[in-house]
Amino acid sequence: MGDSNILLDAKITPIPVLVDEKASNTPDRTFAIIPKTANINDGFRDYKYSELAQAGNKMSWWLEKELEKSVIPETLAYMGAPDLRYTFLYLATQKTRRPLLFPLNQNSRAGHLGILTAIGCKTLLASQDQIELWNALHPEIDTFKVLVVPELEYFLKVEETKEYPYNFSWQDVKDDVGIILHTSGSTGLPKPIKYTNHMLSIFATDSGDLATMFEGLRTFVPLPPSWGLGVAFHMIMSIQFGTIPISLPTDSPQPLTAEYVDKVHTSVQAEAGVYIPYVLEQLSKTPEYLEHMKGLKYIGYGGAPLSREIGDIFAKFTHVQPIMGSTEAGSWGLRKSDPKDWIYYDFDPSSGFQFHKFQDDLYESVIVKHKDPEMAKRQLVFYVFPDLEEFHTKDIWKEHETKKGLWQYAGRMDDFVKLSSLTKFNATHVEGLILKDPRVTGAIMGGDGQMRPFLLLELADNSAHETIDSLWPTIEAANDSLSAEIQLQKNMVLLTKEGKRMKRGFKGLPKRRETLLDYAKEIENLY
To answer: Which residues of 100-109 are buried (b: 16+ CB within 10 A; e: fewer)?
Structure first.
């Protein structure tokens, strides 16, 4: 894992000091590569550390002007366009010693209010184009202070800016809450997770080989800066390890298209990239797009599993690296993957991961607290849950047949359905087979405690005329790989209703629990 010396308090430099030192000693050093305008056709430019330090000062002075000073630092929440203002706010709240929450704009109204109440946040910030997300909290919004952050151009403009004073040592600030993220809320309302500055230092340094792999590389990061992985690459690894993130223009389509991502690849000379599997799947379909990626030293992926079929396409010309973590446990300590067995995860032993039998040849990953107190200090999850001795991730794995210690992801515990016969099966595996049909945009298979499983399907807008009969060949093909007890029957298939689509999380994946609750009556009628 990361150099243990960096976790000795005396060795750590506070983020504002680190940025100012780099701006002073190497002012022309590239911090990030950013679009020149909101239009991708206008190209990209290098953004220097001298500019970053200036923007951090501008944002700090703006906060001081807009907010009253208090003995107890107030917590700020920011939702904005996916640009450098996230980094500027992180730097400014570090300087002014204010906790900073990055909520996801896909949260429900109840989700937003639940998080804000839990952390006692009463000050909401937004870019102008995102302010309606806060206004949607009416009438409760009237009890909050709401501020619009100046446009990005204001912070990018090069002009002499007075340095915002910062005279704190690491000992002064290590226990300050730096960033607050939250869980996805896939099993209920999202829960806030507070990261102190010390925890953020662990987040950065104990991510296995991840930090050193991408150190100094111009890395395309088409991920929202409010995601945990986005925070890691856009803020922490960039400042502490010199990873150079390449940002998307603010007008980039959502979800990203392969054509748009290819424009970035051809507009700027990237040396690595970190993608969600959906983007890689789209890129893999066009040989020309693949050709433009052959200069990448590494392709990292995270957020969801990547199929072997798709990953093997990229593994022919570059190193494919799985990246995994959780809001509660941070980035997991993974070693550099074996190029031939990229789909397997290699856990650093010092991370504390153990594998407990789930069923047959499947195991759950469990983070066990080190008995050595110094080693335990490097396990972020036990700062979040100090009373635990082990943390059950609920992720399920299958070990390599011949290379012991390498593990292939097999799904979440929640993905497994147990029929009344006690037979268990991985619903996501079957759903993946059915989702290969372009007419299907969502599939949820269930049947806990029942004699046989059911299937709920959501169709693409241009396939609304399709019926269960017309879709049956796809389902039959999936059935061919299943035992008789698990095979789907035609009378156990449901289609979602117009105006009642599947609930989705921030990664765009269906929220199983909430969607099944929406269709509880219809599912009950099947049985």
So the answer is: bbbbbebbee
Contact call for residues 367 and 351 (beta carbons, < 8 A): yes
The DSSP string of 159-193 is ---PPPP----HHHHTTSEEEEEE---TTSS--EE
Phi, psi (degrees; rounded to nearest 5) at 481? -95, 5
Distances (CA, A) of 379 to 206, 335, 348, 412, 523: 8, 16, 12, 22, 42
Q: Which residue in the block uniquely carries the two structure tokens 């330090």?
A: 53
Q: What is the pLDDT of residues 479-524, one digit of tens each?
A: 998 888 899 999 999 999 988 999 886 566 788 888 999 999 999 9
Tell me, what amino acid is at 133?
L
Alpha helices per DSSP H over 2-104: 15-25, 49-66, 85-96
C-alpha distance across the termini of the chain, in Å: 51
Quick check: helix, strand or coil at residue 94?
helix
On whether the 1-205 domain is CATH 3.40.50.620, my answer is no
Taking only Cα atoms into account, the Rg of the chain, rounded to an integer number of angstroms, comes to 24
CATH of 419-526, one of 3.30.300.30, 3.40.50.11440, 3.20.20.210, 3.40.470.10: 3.30.300.30
Q: Quote the mean pLDDT of the chain.
A: 91
Nearest alpha-carbon partner for 350 in 327, 374, 329: 374
In the chain, CATH 3.40.50.12780 covers: 1-205
As given in the structure block, the two tokens for residue 58 are 């501008």
**Mean pLDDT lowest among 186-200, 215-229, 371-385, 392-406:** 186-200
Q: Is the bond leading into 249 cis (omega within 30 degrees of zero)?
A: no
pLDDT at 71 over 80: no
Pairing of β 123-126 and β 145-148: parallel
**49-66 helix and 85-96 helix, angle to the nearest 10 degrees:** 60
Q: Which residues of the chain form CATH 3.30.300.30?
A: 419-526
Confidence band of 186 (pLDDT split at 50, 70, 90): low
The overall longest dimension of the chain from CA atoms, in Å, is 73
Q: Give the burial string for 145-184 (b: 16+ CB within 10 Å, else e).
A: ebbebeebeebbeeeebeebebebebeebbebbbbbbbbb
Say which DSSP state 327 is in: T
Residue whose structure tokens are 């102190």: 196
Question: What was the pLDDT predicted at 69?
Answer: 77
Classify residue 321 as left (phi > 0), alpha (psi -120 to 50) or beta.
beta
| Cβ proximity of 170 and 13 under 8 Å | yes
Return all residues near 157 (Cβ < 8 A) that are at least 6 apart: none
